[in-house]
Specification:
alpha/beta, Spore Coat Polysaccharide Biosynthesis Protein SpsA, Chain A, 2 domains, 41% helix
């Protein structure tokens, strides 16, 4: 589905209500015009398609937000996405949205915190509102929402791996992370998205998005980041979306990502269970063997993998009996 400009917050809310569909995961991809930007975005979408199964796609939405104010460029992007991925648009796996500029609060004349230039202040303030828009739009689409950038590649079968990590994470959490970089692979419960959007719109002109999300996590009671290793997404782009001299190169890479080819050869990783029917009695031995194999192959990058033990039926009964004493 492709939805054109949304002009006001009230209008946005009505559209969201109309689109209410409950799935497992929505993956948000914000994108703006930049050098190689359309190529980056199309390759990212292609990676999403290639590394998900038909079964995964039944429960997942890839939400592409064309956040550039250049509507001519957005129209070109829509035409390319429609040409390449029309079956996935028709199935609902891919949705493309854009917002009217009238949705945004003032983006010029803002305070220059941290000595940032007016151009950088505009860029990071707009980015905060871009993300808030996506949070509001996606809040009723699925149980979980994850955001990535528009220049990434995915691990094979990444959707069941996300599902498995959610199951294995027993402690209370606000954000689960599937990449060590920036705002790539950050997972939220959809029930949080409205409050998260309010937080971003309240402080949109105060701090960059990476700082805001860290303070949000701390405010909500999660002291430390919970990062899945190996990670599931790798940054590919080399050109930043910030169009400033000396600020346009971005060569960051996730050192915990093992590569697409490795995942193709190792369909079951250390969290490898069936995505729907999880065998809760599976012991840790197989996972420990896989971890040893991975450590042998990839050395120091995997030395700090930690297991969250999933209790089997006997453990659960023992815990239940203890609570009855």
């Amino acid at each position: 589905m492709i939805f054109d400009s949304v002009r006001t917050k009230n209008k946005l809310q009505r559209v969201v209500h109309f689109l209410t569909v409950t799935g497992f995961l929505t993956i948000g991809i914000p994108s703006i015009k930049r050098s190689n930007g359309m190529s980056y975005l199309l390759n990212t979408i292609r990676s999403m398609v290639e590394h998900t199964s038909p079964r995964d796609r039944e429960h997942t939405v890839v939400l592409v937000f064309l956040a550039d104010f250049n509507t001519t460029y957005n129209t070109q992007v829509i035409a390319n996405i429609s040409s390449l991925f029309l079956p996935h648009i028709n199935s609902g796996f891919i949705q493309v949205v854009q917002a009217s500029r009238s949705f945004y609060p003032p983006l010029t004349g803002l305070k220059r915190n941290f000595g940032d230039s007016p151009e950088r202040v505009f860029w990071r303030a707009k980015q905060n509102i871009d993300f808030a828009f996506m949070f509001l739009y996606a809040r009723n689409l699925s149980d979980f929402y994850m955001q990535v950038e528009d220049d990434i590649t995915c691990a094979n079968n990444f959707v069941p791996k996300i599902r498995e990590f959610i199951i294995y994470t027993r402690r209370q959490w606000v954000i689960l992370e599937f990449s060590e970089l920036g705002f790539i692979g950050k997972l939220f419960k959809s029930s949080q998205l409205e409050s998260l959007a309010q937080y971003f719109t309240t402080f949109y002109d105060e701090q960059p998005v990476d700082w805001l999300i860290r303070w949000y996590r701390l405010t909500m009671g999660q002291e430390h980041a919970i990062l899945r290793k190996p990670t599931l997404f790798q940054h590919q782009g080399k050109i930043s979306s910030l169009h400033m001299e000396g600020q346009n190169l971005n060569r960051l890479e996730d050192k915990f990502f093992l590569g697409v080819e490795w995942w193709r050869e190792n369909e079951t990783d250390i969290f490898g269970l069936d995505p729907i029917q999880v065998d809760m009695e599976k012991n840790r031995t197989d996972k420990e063997l896989m971890m040893d194999k991975m450590r042998a192959e990839f050395g120091k990058h995997l030395q700090d993998i930690q297991f969250e033990h999933v209790p089997n039926a006997k453990d659960s009964q023992k815990a239940h009996n203890n609570t009855q004493r």
